[in-house]
Every structure is written in structure tokens, then in C-alpha cells.
Amino acid sequence: MPGGPGRAVDRTLWAMSTDRPAPASLPDRLRATLGDTLGPTAWRTVTQDMIDTFAVLSGDRQWIHTDVERAARESPFGTTIAHGNLTLSMIDGFRDELIGFAGVTLGVNLGYDRVRFPTPVRQGARVRATAELVAVEERDGGWTQTVTRFTVEVEGQERPACVADSVVRILAA
């Protein structure tokens, strides 16, 4: 799990502090950063209030997420755990922390190619994320499509809580 410091981001889309000169076009600038890891982000605590709010919004009120007393008695995790999709949804905030969007007219989230939840997030746990650009493809009309692999780490756990390949289409300014 990447947990060490990544490169510093200057809040310009994937323009990182580096010895490499910055290419002029957006697709070329992005390609120059393929494989680089950004982050990690700051730690965020996953609270029971967050889990309960997500349960109401999603309609998924399974006891392993919402019944603190029962989870303490019956769950193999000893407490409630966050919904996998709650962990996945946190990526949007982590993305904003890791990747700036200066010089971009519009970014459209197309979804995810692959999502896995290797380990649960217990309520009260702290999580953070890293991002790695894994694909860049030029599209018609000035659009560039990217695939960014986000890895959400749980403090003190060897395995990540979530690994997701986010697909975004970007229109340069």
C-alpha cells in the first residue's frame, strides 16, 4: 500500500514539482505524469454519524453498518463498518485534495472501471488516499479521458480499504 509521501501538487491538473519541463498540451502534460503517485491526503476519520447518514441516503441500513450494540456482539469486526460505497464516495473529496483543476474548462466523472474493497473500514478508523494516473487518451472535440487509480488506506491496516479506477473526461481551457 502506498503510504509514503508523494509529490507535491501545485493545484494545476497533475502539474507536479519535478525536474521535468511541463509539456504544453494537456494530454502531453498528463502523459508525462503516468505512473507517478500523488499523496497521501490528510487523514479523515470515518464516524458513526457519517455511516448512519450514508445508510439513510442509500437505503442500506444493514445492521453491520448501523446497529452499534449488535455489531459489537455479533460482527467479526467488533464494531460497525462503513459501507463500501461510502468509502468509494470519499474519493471525490480526496480527488479535490490531490488534484487541482486550473486550466480546465470542465471535468466529467464517467464512473469507475474497477472497484475493490479488500478490507473493511471500522467506525472511528482514519483513512487517506493516494492517486496514480494510469491511462490518458485523447478524444474528439478537445477532450482528454483519464483513468486514475485511487487507493484508500486505513490507518494501521496492511491492506487498503478501497482500490478504484476512476474514469474522468477533461476539456482543457
Structural write-up:
The protein has 173 residues and is an alpha+beta fold. It has a domain at 26-46 and 82-172: Thiol Ester Dehydrase, Chain A (Roll). It is built from six helices and six strands; from the N terminus they run H-E-E-H-H-H-H-H-E-E-E-E. The protein has helices at residues 26-31, 48-58, 63-66, 68-74, 84-89, 91-98, and strands at residues 37-38, 44-45, 104-116, 126-138, 143-154, 162-172. Strands 1, 2, 3, 4, 5 and 6 form a six-stranded antiparallel sheet that branches. Strand 5 (143-154) and strand 6 (162-172) form a beta hairpin. The protein is elongated, with a radius of gyration of 18 Å. The two termini are 35 Å apart. Residues 1-5, 7-12 and 14-18 have low confidence and may be disordered.
